[in-house]
Amino acid sequence: MSGGRGYSFNQDSFDELDSSLDRALHSASNTLFPAYNASGTSLSGAQPTRSSSQGSMNGGGIPLNTLRDSMGRRDDDEGDGDNDSSPLISKKLRMSSPVNRFGGGGSGGNGLLSNNSGVGGRDDIHYISSSANRRQTSISVASKELFSKSINFFQNAKRELKKDRLRLGSSGINNGVIGNTVSEDLLQINSDTTSSLATDRYISPRNNSSKDYPSNAVSNAKYNPFTFIPIILYEQFKFFFNMYFLLVALSQAIPQLRIGYLSSYVVPLVFVLTVTMMKEANDDIKRRRRDRDQNNELFEVLNRVASISGESTLVASKDLKVGDLVRLHKDTRVPADMVLLQTSDGTGEAFIKTDQLDGETDWKLRVAPAATQKLSNVLSFTNRISLIVGSPTKSIHQFQGKLVYHPNQVAGSTSLVSESNETFPLTVDQTLWANTMLASGSAIGMVVYTGIETRQQLNTTMTGVKTGLLEFEINRLSKILCVTVFVLSVILVLANGFPLKSGWYIDVFRFLVLFSTIIPVSLRVNLDLAKSVYASQIQNDKEIPDTIVRTSTIPEDLGRIEYLLSDKTGTLTQNDMEMKKLHLGTVSYAGESLDMVTDYVTHMLQKPEFTQPSNASSNTTKKKDLSTKVCDIIQTLALCHNVTPVYDEEDGLMLESVTYQAASPDEIAIVKFTELVGLRLFKRDRASISLLHQASQRQLDYEILYIFPFNSDTKRMGIIVRDAQTQELWFMQKGADTVMSRIVSNNDWLDEETGNMAREGLRTLVIGRKKLNENLYLDFVEQYKQASLAMQNREASMQRVISHYLEQDLELLGLTGVEDKLQNDVKTSIELLRNAGVKIWMLTGDKVETAKCVSISARLILRGQYVHEITKVNHPEGAMSHLEYLQTDLNSCLLIDGESLFTYMKHYRNEFFNIVVGLPAVIACRCTPQQKADVALMIREFTGKRVCCIGDGGNDVSMIQCADVGVGIVGKEGKQASLAADFSIDQFCYLSKLLLWHGRNSYKRSAKLSQFIIHRGLLISVAQAVYSILSQFEPLALYQGWLMVGYSTLYTMAPVFLLTLDCDIDEHLTRLYPELYKELTLGKSLSYRTFFMWTFISLFQGSVIQLLAQKFQGIELNNFTKMVSLSYLNLILNELAMVVISISKWNRTMVSTIVATLLAYIILIPILPDYFDLDYVSSFSFVWQVVLTISLSLFPVWLSQYINRKLRPPNYAKVQQS
Q: What 3-state DSSP class applies to 683?
């Protein structure tokens, strides 16, 4: 670029982009024509206006990759162009032929082009050489050179414009101030700016009207006005049933193929499509209404009006943009991904609830940067800060960014000295992700990601239309029926003899239409209505109150579940921790014996060791009495934590109620326990902590010197405090027994007791402490400070110092046992589902130890069952060796963390799932929302089995939507999972009835209903085939008009539909014998075996009915109406009788419906004289012929079923009889 030349932007340079572009183009020209510029010739001239670029300059956040790549070329692809020592123009020059002018007046000019860079020709550029052969260069070459020059010219211009943009951002221009020239060297905010331009974003609150970023509107709708009809039609006609009937209906528009009334074929199909479209439209409208409520929620934005006014504006959530400064209040939803800038708390601290994001209900601490916490007005925010953030990613636990602080201007000066800019790192501790909740105070944040770029949206899978497994099975059977129809039609035409008639192909199509009832269109209507009945039965079940069916298309899949993927927090547990046990090695306290602990704490301050300084410089070797030991551990528990007490205030008066905020519910449970026994956490800030001895109402003060937070690597947490009463220094620590056992002093009881507590399902922590002398402490401080400044392996260096100086020979005080309360009847429900053959996976974002404890207490891990742990496998080398044991012991349980799961899914996906899908239980910890969804998809892909996912938080939405059946729990984590799920329940224990009872009924009923409807269609088609065969293979209709429509609607639909009210066993037996559920997963209720069995029954009964009718009345034209009257009534009575002998449990509705159907048939006979011979129907011969025909068609079927049930009764029949 031109040697260090600087450029300045005026007050509203974004609005004066043309001026800025002129300077950028001029600088690019200087770069590309150094020889010419040196001669002093001006390159100025009329520049083309680029007002179209202004829109992209107005944004509060400018994606730096657009500044780098929009011309289709990266800076790092330009050879050595950025190297100061490399020539800007190659020594090997070309002469181009005259070209048209480029933006100025005058004659055409020529340009100079290097191999690495190019220029745009202008009318005042002269030839360097006048060589004749150069003037004769071909037109094609000249055109290519001109094109190359133009591209490179504007590339350089764009890079200059990019520098101007960055300079504007770094100069901190405020309203009404014109920035002076800034050195080009100060454009680099840090040394790696150039390498990060392609991914980093520069965001400023000064101008936040950019349209370069996604809208913040939320949309969970499946359709829009343009896609609704196409998607619905595709979803319907992808099923063979509907496509077949569409073709049949269309064929009736051809006169030669028309049989009967056109409405007989068109109306049923239109009715099916209309019902489906209305139901889908209603569901989508409800989703849009929920989205509208969220999108129209108002938020207070500070920088949408003139900064000098200091006023705020209420902006709808959908209209928020990157760069907006939003003020949030307590219990307010965070509308977009934001960076925390300031809180109402003087220390800059704020707590947020992340339950809708990661499923954890414990509050997370967020800290505002010190540079922005001290700002006092909106003008300071808009003029003094800007952000650099990375591209949006899925990780909710990681964030990298920088805050650039532009300090105050020098008094009386309008310049901003960029050398004084300060840069502060931003981490996840400064983030407020979308749909989290501010739990304390108020806060100001800057929007950095909106809409589909927010963390939650990136971890959410798009919704799709779910189709039940039964639908696919019926679709396959329908293809067999279609082939049967085609083959039968061809056979009947060929059977007419050779040579074939000239219109034989028309006869084939007419037969296809005649036999279309084999694939009954009413099947779709009946199944959809049946699903609505199942949904109503589920929602009206008083034993599972408030259950909601949101997707009514898949209730049958509830009876086919083989894998259950469950969240932990809020799903299996109540998020209600309670400390149950305190163990001191020689004695333990639990239940009523905790009253003894209270007595010891009550008299604690009467002991001199708690009020007077001790002369001992280390852990005393004096034997302590039991009361002192109890008080020591209670005091340590009350101090060693990260809990902060928060008091609500009303009218300036402090209430007695206190809310504890912490990142771990375990710590809150322990602090509540210490309060219960008499030592209360009273106050806390970053530097001090105060306890209240409730018996004496005396306040005990401690100075906090160091805190060592808990993490999954160290598995422990420590604190150094100075006792204000005794001036003693104490290092206190608590952690998992696996790491604390080597830190505390030698003992002979720790391992045994931790094992005992774990078997009780308690979450254990080992408590220890160590008294520090001043010299040791000062040595630690010096070494720890040096380690904290290390540029490499900083964390490891700091941990080594802690281990060397502090974690040596701690006094073992005792053990704590905390219980995470399970949901009601979780143990029973899991045991039932396990016995029902369901493989249960627990996918949680919680820690490994926590997940293991909950799995044991919930009986997901059985007593004595081996738990194979795989953690921290982050390299593919040797990863498969960890799975070898699982191949030999298929009854073991796998416990794996998210890091290892990612490695296996990336490198050994097939091998991993082939092994683990056969395990009875799998626990996956530290899973991201997307990992949960990926696991659900992979199980479906590898097994082809039905997968049910259940959760209660926003982090479970993706998993729920990826499942075959998604179940959401309404609980403490809100309703987001419930709204996105197919079924919404209030408690986990409701799931057992939902699957074992309602799932069983839905599947069995739909399977039987489908078989009866297919049987009904086959029955009338067989009668038609017999008639056609005995009518010399002519495609003549046996039943026409109302007889065709009434057969599948008024006369048989209601009785057949009664099967949706039937049940084969009593409800209590499904819980008593959950093993019956296994049979459902095999799909035996509707299989190829049952299909062919019903086909044979239909063939037999249809042949008997039609042959006897033709035997009694013949097929002559004068007796045709009599024959139709006889065979038609027999078809109806046969279908009703088949329903009667198939019902297992009768009720009044069934009886009244069958009676009403028969009465309707009898009443309509006189009204339809064209279809029935009234004299014959009222004769005695008609009656005995009907009785004989029905007896011959039904008795063999009933007898075979009766014998089969006696010889080989199904398991459900055995259970019901017992």
A: strand
